[in-house]
From TrEMBL:
Species per Swiss-Prot/TrEMBL record: Kingella denitrificans ATCC 33394
UniProt keyword annotation of Transcription regulation present: yes
Family membership: Belongs to the LysR transcriptional regulatory family.
Pfam short name (any one): LysR_substrate
Keyword Transcription found: yes
Name this protein carries in UniProt: Transcriptional regulator, LysR family
Length: 296
């Protein structure tokens, strides 16, 4: 039984889609399909059935899946152990960070890891939630943060907190906007992040709830520039509340519309097969402790 066939099997089981599984594995769809057929030949029965909802596991597939996942977890532990046998082994920790996390928490987390494991090489990757998830699934990082709701098999998800988002506008436009709600929101230019961000999805839901369909948008994936664009009277924006309050405290020319505050769940995520990885254990213990304490 080929380990690559098992990886393809798990990927299809998680995505329920051959194309998405192929993208996740960096393979062609025919290659993934061939690996599934080869595995089914090895076990002597069908593992999937095609339905309107995608590739669904058969009873045999449901029984095989946890065993396949356990085997990959064991393989990962063995690979990690083998690496430590090298004379020049360096314990590397790859962590994915997203923009709503305050810099003080990143600093506190870094300090804890360096103090506990002085020989550890910490590599902090920055990206949006979907980018962090993609890197995680591709095993380019050990763990990371994800903003928003997530439901994916073979992933460990630890809820940390709800992140508050505030609607900001140029101070000079505040009265005009308040006097003509909600039409003024619909007529305004909105500064938003691209579709791979959880903030974008949240904003789309916000527009839907308030029956808004703004025709003018500015796409910007650099968080601090979003606030600067609002200061420059280029539009409205939904930003992390702590960033909005910090900008107001610095005397920047923006106002916060408190009645439109939003909340998104922040999670710490990693693959099941990384559960016993020393790097993940180190990160998880410190993340949970710091978020419990507030990383003050």
């Amino acid at each position: 039984m080929d380990i690559q066939h098992l990886k393809a099997f798990i990927a299809v089981a998680c995505t329920k889609n051959l194309t998405q599984a192929a993208e996740k594995l960096f393979l062609s769809q025919p290659a993934v399909s061939a690996q599934i057929k080869a595995l089914e030949s090895d076990v002597g029965t069908a593992l999937f059935v095609r339905t309107n909802n995608g590739m669904q596991l058969t009873r045999a597939g449901e029984v095989l899946l946890p065993e396949a996942e356990a085997l990959l977890q064991h393989k990962h532990r063995l690979e990690q152990f083998a690496q430590t046998l090298s004379a020049d082994y360096v314990h590397s920790v790859q962590l994915g960070i997203i923009h709503p996390i305050e810099s003080r928490k990143v600093t506190a987390l870094t300090r804890c890891i360096v103090e506990q494991e002085p020989k550890t090489q910490l590599h902090i990757h920055y990206g949006m939630s979907i980018e962090i998830l993609s890197r995680l699934l591709a095993k380019k990082i050990h763990a990371g943060f994800f903003l928003g709701h997530i439901d994916q098999r073979n992933l460990q998800v630890h809820f940390l907190e709800h992140v508050d988002y505030s609607l900001i506008c140029p101070q000079s436009q505040l009265q005009r906007i308040r006097d003509n709600l909600p039409k003024s929101l619909n007529d305004s230019t909105w500064i938003e992040m691209s579709g791979i961000s959880s903030s974008y999805k949240n904003l789309q839901q916000f527009w839907h709830r308030h029956k808004l369909n703004p025709k003018k948008q500015i796409i910007c994936d650099y968080p601090q520039t979003i606030i600067d664009l609002a200061v420059a009277q280029q539009g409205l924006a939904m930003v992390p509340k702590h960033s909005a309050l910090e900008a107001v405290g610095q005397g920047k020319d923006i106002a916060v519309l408190d009645e439109f505050e939003q909340h998104l769940p922040l999670h710490f995520i990693y693959l099941d097969e990384f559960s016993e990885d020393p790097a993940v254990t180190l990160l998880l213990e410190n993340v949970q402790r710091l978020w419990k304490l507030g990383a003050a």
